[in-house]
Write a structure and sequence with these properties.
mainly alpha, two-stranded antiparallel sheet, 6 helices, 46% helix, globular
């Protein structure tokens, strides 16, 4: 995990992909049942496209159903809004570097739930600026229901 995080540290989202550190030796996901939200973005009906992208490291060419991406965007927006309501850091992080921090920080889950930003210092990926106002408004409405 640390080696994968080092390979992507400081790179943008459009940089060349690396092999996912969660893939096991059989190229299956070792954390499928508990995979991060970002992994849910890849719904494909073409296993060969996935193999080309994630195993052979070809240019990403995975087609996702439009409705699936709409649901993913809505889910991500609700998650970010809920984090804002809880006054927690609501930034998005590159998977490898965030996992490396979470796995190498003692009591990371407890510390994060207690409000400590264990990801402070990592490069963040903001919600699309076009959605930022919507997220803020949704968070305000959500807060009013608690």
């Amino acid at each position: 995990m640390a080696a994968a995080a080092d390979k992507v540290r400081g790179k943008g989202l459009r940089e060349p992909w690396i092999r996912c550190p969660l893939l096991n030796d059989a190229n299956g996901c070792s954390a499928y049942a508990f995979r991060p939200l970002s992994c849910h973005a890849y719904a494909s009906d073409d296993v060969q496209a996935c193999i080309k992208t994630f195993v052979l490291r070809d240019k990403p060419s995975i087609r996702c159903p439009v409705s699936y991406n709409e649901v993913l965007d809505a889910t991500r927006t609700v998650l970010v809004a809920a984090l804002k309501v809880l006054d927690r850091a609501s930034d998005l992080y590159e998977l490898n570097t965030a996992l490396a921090v979470a796995l190498n920080t003692e009591d990371s889950e407890t510390r994060w739930r207690d409000g400590e930003n264990i990801f402070a210092g990592l490069v963040t990926m903001r919600v699309d600026p076009g959605q930022e106002a919507w997220v803020t408004n949704f968070a305000a409405e959500l807060a009013g229901t608690l």
